[in-house]
Fold:
Amino acid sequence: MPGLDIGVIGPTGFGGSYLTVELLNRGHRVRGISRHPEKLGHHEAYTSHPIDLEKAPIEDISKAFSGLDVLVNEYGPHTAGEEALQYQPFLELTRKIILAAKDSKVGYFIMVGGCGSLNLPGTHFHTCSESRDWWLAYRRAIAKSHAHVAYMEERLGSMGTALREYRDAWAAVRQGTDTGATRRSIDEYEQKVLNNDKAKTFVTACRTSFMFFDGNTSFRWTYISPSALYRPGKRTGTYKTIFDEIPLKPVPAGADPKSLEDRLHGITAADLAIAITDEAEKQGRIGRHWSAYADLSDDTPTPSYVTLS
Ligand SMILES: NC(=O)c1ccc[n+]([C@@H]2O[C@H](COP(=O)([O-])OP(=O)(O)OC[C@H]3O[C@@H](n4cnc5c(N)ncnc54)[C@H](OP(=O)(O)O)[C@@H]3O)[C@@H](O)[C@H]2O)c1
Structure:
């Protein structure tokens, strides 16, 4: 198959940098679209289109997208730190991007959203982002992964530091070296998670962004939500997919069947990049909301961002 012309919004970000490397390795031509796409580095099939999507008018954004077979939206606010994890800016920017993508008639629009829009099993109106049980299971699961905590520390300041302290506190409990203070710190952290997790505002914005797409037949799109434990790590080369619902592992023996504890799946950015590249080439999930998950047993910390050599 001859290479495609693929635009990546956010080529220097977490998901976008891994994706751009995968696309180039698979023989596609990539146009990086962000404020400083040149920071990714050099490759003969990589071109940079610098643009500030917040400030630029939709007409200019449409020009940035012109002539593309596929456009992948990997825009995210994380590189600006935890204070940038807001509700309105993400939705407003997503609106502009969709209007511009439709105007420029890109062949296929791939939206990378968040796991917050995935439904809890067997439900139609109950997403992860509004489930207190999901938030607790999520924080407990990522705290068990050294690689995930290291990734949060690299990207999200005090949120990463708090997660490290929470992980260390659980480790003390498991080793039997905890004190009353350790238990209190776990309780305090989990109360905050249950009442209003610091990431909830942004995760809910991502959740709501799906409403721009659901049932919309005015352009060719697909919407991928990474599975919950999405992080940097090993490229295993294989993944599984699921439509609409959060992928879950079987209920552990003797556990409450309603509990989400120890049941969340995840995927590395390198494996998600394979899933997105496959979709860009095959275009088999038009108008669908889906997730991908893979083996996360390797817990080696890995950089959140990659560059072209
Ligand atoms: N578990 C999950 O479900 C999960 C976890 C993480 C992320 N996600 C989702 O994945 C998607 C991508 O997030 P990410 O974390 O991979 O990205 P990220 O690291 O936050 O990437 C930021 C990218 O956006 C670009 N950018 C920021 N502001 C911009 C602006 N004003 N104009 C143009 N470009 C701008 C940056 O490039 P410049 O600095 O060059 O502009 C950078 O390349 C988001 O929808 C996010 O919600 C989901």
Observations:
- Residues 132-194 form one domain.
- The two ends are 25 Å apart (CA to CA).
- The mean pLDDT is 94.
- The pocket of NAP is lined by residues 10-16, 34-37, 52-54, 74-79, 112-115, 206, 225-226, 228, 230 (CB under 6 Å).
